[in-house]
Amino acid sequence: MNTINNSRRNFIKNTGALALGATLPISLVELAFADSSENFTFAYISDAHIQHIKDNRFVRNWDRGLIRAVAEANLLTPKPDFVMFGGDLAQLGSKPELDHGAEILSALHGEVRYVMGEHDYYLDLGEYWQKLFGPQYYSFDHKGVHFVVLNSIKTFDDWTFKRWPTAEQRMLEMAGLDNPNGSPFMVGDEQRLWLKNDLDKIKKDTPVVVFSHSPLQKIYKGWNFWTEDAEQVQALLKPFDKVSVIYGHVHQIQYNQIGNISFNSVMATSWPWPYPQSYAQAEQYLPKLTVPMNRADPFFERDATGWQFINIANGNADLNFTLYDNSSRIVRYNKKLKRPEDAVYQDEKARIIPQTHY
Ligand SMILES: [Fe+2]
Ligand SMILES: [Fe+2]
Questions:
Q1: Is the pTM of this model over 0.85?
Q2: Which of 80, 154, 206, 272 could be 43's S-S partner, Cβ–Cβ 3.0 to 4.6 Å?
Q3: Does residue 334 sit in helix, strand or coil?
Q4: In the chain, which stretches have pLDDT less than 70?
């Protein structure tokens, strides 16, 4: 790992691409240090869900979301040191989907790193994905920050290996958002042991950034916005001064703070899932997802997709969300309340997403 001195770990913040306007379906994250010449940025693209129809035909809208993100990532100034892809490159994990997604991503300038999503995994358990992109979990050090990538979408062996007559059915059962036949995601014993060994070697004042696909916190089990062993993973991260977990999967704005860990979701380039108020603490508000692409505004297929800046200063996350054809939102760490707060969401009158759509 890189050696790190204290002046190089002041904060992680996001900045940069505001000049590019309000259409980026990507995130740009800046890690800023006391000596600004050591600052660096990385970009984040997630949840493309490239979907094969037949022969060389793919669902065009999902293609366009990813193509647009790639094109805009290549225009970023400053140039990001690397690009993360946050998982769910494919819709049903097939070779044509992964190949097509990889082809689109190959236009990215510079280094790209990958997170495994459940839509990439449950057909062949990551075999082909691994051939294309490398190991399913790993860590790396970059300019004094320790980065960890986890495959957080594994589940019980019984469900994975014994439940389904075909790999295709297994994939379909895990692909449904609200399918009761699904199974909770988890990092699992083997990876947690690896993580423990990996983190043991890292000084506790080193900033740690963890990339996962599912949230490493428990949000809503019914939709698998959930990682079964989240607390155990959090416990391994607890000794560090500053930890950021950045995840995809939820296709919406989410933020949280648990102890020393800031959690931030990134937006999808494909479609949005409904907002948290539709399910948080209120079972009766759960939408019945009889329409596969349920969304906040059913007349606007890209509602709630977009991009955001993440500013994680001193371990506290500020998120600046820019949504396609929608009001911008800012989630800021409230120092008094000691938690992140969405200023717009707090105001009932200014609420952007009408409940009546559900
Ligand atoms: Fe996804
Ligand atoms: Fe996912």
A1: no
A2: 80
A3: strand
A4: 1-39, 274-335, 337-358
Q: 7 CA to middle of ligand 2, Å?
A: 37
User: What ligand has the least distance to the C-alpha of 89?
Assistant: 1
Cα(232) to ligand 1 centroid in Å equals 24
* d(CA 88, ligand 2 centre) in Å: 5
Rounded Cα distance, 85 and 215, in Å: 15
pLDDT at 269: 87
CA–CA gap between residue 59 and residue 57 (Å, rounded)? 7
Residue 85 bridge partners (DSSP)? 45, 114
d(CA 148, CA 191): 11
* Distance separating alpha carbons of residues 182 and 176, to the nearest angstrom: 8
For residue 332, the CA-to-ligand 1 centroid distance in Å is 25
- With CA atoms as reference, report the closest residue to 195 among 144, 134, 130, 240: 240
User: Any idea which ligand is nearest the CA of 266?
Assistant: 1
Owner of token pair 């607890």: 238
Which two three-digit tokens encode residue 257? 């703070």
CA of 344 to the centre of ligand 2 (A): 27
For the segment 91-122, what is each residue's pLDDT rounded down to a tens digit? 999 999 999 999 999 999 989 999 999 999 99
From the CA of 273, which ligand is nearest? 1
With beta carbons less than 8 A apart as the criterion, state whether 114 and 122 touch.
Answer: no
Give me 166's structure tokens: 């075909």
Structural domains of the chain ordered from first start: 10-16+26-357 (3.60.21.10)
Q: If you measure from the C-alpha of residue 219 to the centroid of ligand 2, how many angstroms do you get, rounded to a whole number?
A: 14
Give residue 124 CA to ligand 2 midpoint distance, Å: 16
Query: How far does residue 248's CA lie from ligand 2's centre (Å)?
Result: 7
CA distance linking residue 218 with residue 255, whole number of Å: 12
